[in-house]
Each structure stands twice: as structure tokens, then as C-alpha cells.
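Suppose you are handed only two things: the residues of a chain and a line of SMILES describing zinc ion. What would the bound structure be? This form records exactly that question and the answer produced for it, so the two can be stored side by side and reused later without any lookup.

QUESTION INPUTS
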Amino acid sequence: MPLTCHACGTRVAAPGGLCPACWAGLELVAGPVCDVYDTPMTQDAGPGAVSARAMEHPPGWNRARGVTVFSEVSQRLVHALKYRDRHEVAPAMARMMVHAGRDLLADADLIAPVPLHRWRLWTRRYNQSALLAGEVARLSGKRLAPDLAARVRRTRSQVGLGQSERNRNVKGAFCVSPQHTGSVMGRKVLLIDDVMTSGATASECGRALHAAGAAEVDVLVFALVSGGA
Ligand SMILES: [Zn+2]
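ANSWER OUTPUT
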């Protein structure tokens, strides 16, 4: 099997994921960022600094980190994993996530994916966030809790919805099942997802984990849609 770039399919010399052009097209999150939303800040106020948006609209998680800003290349990687059954992309994406989320991973007790509703899981056959969570746990040596949170309500796709509609759409959609409340209590949970758009889904999932007694809920994603709240 020839080695090919995970994003564009061109031949590459060594295994590792991306061709030089796609590497260059990946817009890594860098510079001073908000500790809560991982969005760029105009001034470097030091570690732990939070944006005005985080103060005005605190989400249901504590800290979030992403590898890249959503771009053509990151979209291709996400789609390869999500819709094209390219499971071999997960380790490459997870390696980058482990690097971008190293401060969150250092503190985490448990790694958990943002869950899909069982109907969507059935039609799509796998949860791309669970694949990433498994790889992040394997690479970091942290404990994986694959079904820590459950999606108890089926929600419509968030695509095309505004912020308040997105918040309403996922309200009360998650819960921590009774058999897992013991493992959540007092623990620091790192939630894994492929993309964060509005943050409404991760926020609602974070709220459910906090309600179940989690000491902290952080979020690590591959791609952040810039400007999303
Ligand atoms: Zn490429």
C-alpha cells in the first residue's frame, strides 16, 4: 500500500499523516488564547487569562483546547474520519490533540467522548469522537471512560442553527447514567470531540458531568470553528 496524505491523498515518503502542503495549510491554534474558549486574545495577559466572552457567557466546561482553526485541510481530515470510514486518520489527529491538550491531559483523571445518540450511532455505525478519545487515552496513558456521558434525547443537527437555537436544541440532551455517577464524583474529566462549532453541545455535556459531581470538565477538540461561542 503506498503511503498517502490523510487530507489530500497525494503520495508521501514517510508515514505520519500529511503531505508538506497540507501541513502548511493546517492553521494551528497559537499565540495568546482565552483559557476557557481557546480563542485568540489581542493581548497576552499570561496563563489562565480569560476573554470577555468567557466572563459574559461561561460555558458548561472549565477549559477548552483545539489543535487547529477549522480550515479546508482540517475539514478534510474531520470528514475523512466522520463520513468516509478512514479510521486510520484518528491516530494522526489524536497525536496532535495530545500535544495541544497537554496541560489539560496532565490534570485529567478520565477521558470521555462526547456521545452520539444511539439512533445516530446506528446509522453512522461509529462515533468519531469515541475513536479520537480512545487514541488520546492510549497515547496519554489516561483512563478511558467510553460511555461516561449518554445522549438521552435525540436532537436535530446543529448545522444552520443560530447560537440560541443551538443551545435550546441540546438542552437536557445529556446525562450521566447512575452506574457511572460513582466514577464521575470528584474527578477531572476531559471531554473529546472532533470539532467545536458553537460549543453548545460540549457545554451541555459538561453541565451534565458537573451536575453528576465532576470536579472539573475540560474539552479537547481537533478543530475549532473560529468565532464560535
Ligand atoms: Zn496533503
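WHAT STANDS OUT: The two ends are 42 Å apart (CA to CA). Residues 5, 7-8, 10, 18-19, 21-22 surround zinc ion (CB under 6 Å).
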